[in-house]
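yo

u said u wanted the structure for the complex thing, so here. seqs first:
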Amino acid sequence: MTNALRLGIAGLGTVGVGVVRIIRKHAHLLEARTGRRIEIVAVSARDAGKDRGVPLGDYAWETDPVALARRDDIDVFVELMGGAEGAAKDAVEAALQGGKDVVTANKAMLAHHGQDLALLAEEAGRQIRYEAAVAGGIPVIKALTEGLAGNEITRVMGVMNGTCNYILTRMEATGQGYNALFKEASDLGYLEADPNLDVGGIDAGHKLAILASIAFGTQVNFDGVELEGIQRITLEDIRQAADMGYRVKLLGVAQRSPRGLVQRMQPCLVPAHSPLGQLEGGTNMVVIEGDAIDQLVLRGPGAGEGPTASAVLGDICDLARGVKLPVFGQPAKTLEAAQPAQTGLPAPYYLRMSLLDKPGALAKIAKILGDAGVSIDRMRQYGHTNGAAPVLFVTHKTTRASLDVALEAMATTDVIASEPVALRIEHV
Amino acid sequence: MTNALRLGIAGLGTVGVGVVRIIRKHAHLLEARTGRRIEIVAVSARDAGKDRGVPLGDYAWETDPVALARRDDIDVFVELMGGAEGAAKDAVEAALQGGKDVVTANKAMLAHHGQDLALLAEEAGRQIRYEAAVAGGIPVIKALTEGLAGNEITRVMGVMNGTCNYILTRMEATGQGYNALFKEASDLGYLEADPNLDVGGIDAGHKLAILASIAFGTQVNFDGVELEGIQRITLEDIRQAADMGYRVKLLGVAQRSPRGLVQRMQPCLVPAHSPLGQLEGGTNMVVIEGDAIDQLVLRGPGAGEGPTASAVLGDICDLARGVKLPVFGQPAKTLEAAQPAQTGLPAPYYLRMSLLDKPGALAKIAKILGDAGVSIDRMRQYGHTNGAAPVLFVTHKTTRASLDVALEAMATTDVIASEPVALRIEHV
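structre next:
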């Protein structure tokens, strides 16, 4: 009777409302571009009574997202609830089993269950699309899976948690410390309910694991991501980095090494004049390097109603146009199990510590570094306070393993006032 | 007998050879990603005997690209010859009429004949894909047509001629003038056979016209692009701009205005700290603004064997995967005829001229500007040479039409030593 693409939308938070709003506002534009009407049939959310600022009366209401996913009158199940487990995953599985395509923004679910869901979808001949799961409005999944399909991808990097970048760049701009800016971000509603998802690097790590799967033809392996948050970054780190021509970013890097797949999400120093170094506030950036393209840089809003809904709509339009793709760029059954690299490629490191005011303290540390094979490029000691002195080293290229040997040895001395901070200096 | 996607490639210059090289090198990768073998069946180029550094002996050779396009044993005709008219267009038409899909890097052909070719393709149920025609390796056609399909696009901007950006940024870096850098670019092989295609802004204008069509749902209208090259930019302009916090870029801008579609490709001043302002050398950048995404910035290599071949392969992989899209994002028969705006939106302008050393010269110019309704924000006169003094104005926001009235009036005075240079200051 109709050629419309019929949607069921589960989750009416910021993103869900944004999707409804675009579909209502741009009905004609979307039909002109896809050749089909995009029609919302039914929706689902926790609270049916809440005023969400968009009229929802035309749509059937399901209290249970699984029931929504099983409706016979939808073609596409749009999952915008979030959460790695539980209702979101149950509903996505029900949708795929029931012959529906899925559009989702759920990075946690894909990072933890992407391989199983992709197998399920591909056996059922269905699609899972998830542009909104990585880097908000930036169409990076499309660029990597489709636009760069002719490349062997050599490295993927990204600043993909806007809240962390907001905190780090505001520390530099305002001269306030981490705790004050964490509170500011919290007051502004920028933090997840569990803030460790943001500042602990977990959310960004989910995104990196998804990109790595597409880039390297490996099964998503979030457990293989070396994770470190921004909680220990001080204003002093940011200032010392700036003084040496760097900026501190929570940077994700995925690349193949002779030892296996490297996936790191950790605060790094990047050159201040590189595109990544210049990134301000909540904006995201993904850098993709391939053997033919050399380097592609994508920059855009990483969150928010409009940008995330834009990504969801891109996927919906693809489905309306009949685009069919393997979930992770090649069939899930052909993806290799990722072999996580035990240790990453060598790099210079920034090393900050506080040394107690004892004779020979610096000599002890210097000897420990030397014994571990870590050679020092620059050293700086900058003023005593309370019987301890902050000391800064920049090392020559070394492996994290060598550095860890040195850090362990330092911990057994009696000259360290607090646990040292070690930040990789990434050439981008 | 086979599920391979069979290609005929016309044109074995840098890009054609790059495409052959990737298909040979990444045969397995491409098959894993698309589910089909990508097979070159036949090729065509002017000189069959030339050693191009890749083995071509496995492929049938056609001297006539139209004959290649008509072969029964190809699925896709890959046109990499270039030229708006003649053999390239004849062969593309023959391919479409014969039921083949087309992949092309030919911006001139699409800028001049895109609408007719799209109508032809869509009537025949065939695809024309042209990612490589705009901004080299950057998958901008895909981002605009697919990734941002849920947006009403509000503005598209781009630095899309690497040679011009190379000349302008090298002028600043080396302190050499335009002519010296033009020669350097020529010696390095960066210039088209007709250099006016580059430095006159024509090549970049072709690209802008293509992007505008997709962005605004209008028929490609290259004649509607207001074109100005970089030939009159002096080192002094670049230095004065830098002194005020700007950089000079050959910038394309397309947007809807109340008066119609604005398409401008001209040297502009952009803020030095904006992503466009920071762009160095031959790199390209496209900025897309939409009502949901806000702003997306794409940065990558705009030319060269690898990047351009990467874009061609992206299109080929899409065809292998069965992706079908209207050529300009919505069916060609639904595209509106563009109504070119007679005059662009108001902006501040940078205005450089040389005034003869006559009493009252400056007063005359100031009066002319005032009479035309152009008000002055800043003025600077910086030293006489040979009886004339360079004078610089920065105006408040004004229309180009008002400025043109003033420029015409200035030309009738006896105080101007040479034709003034007027550069728009673009807020990006």
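The two ends of chain B are 54 Å apart (CA to CA). The domain at 349-425 of chain B is CATH 3.30.70.260 (Alpha-Beta Plaits).
cya
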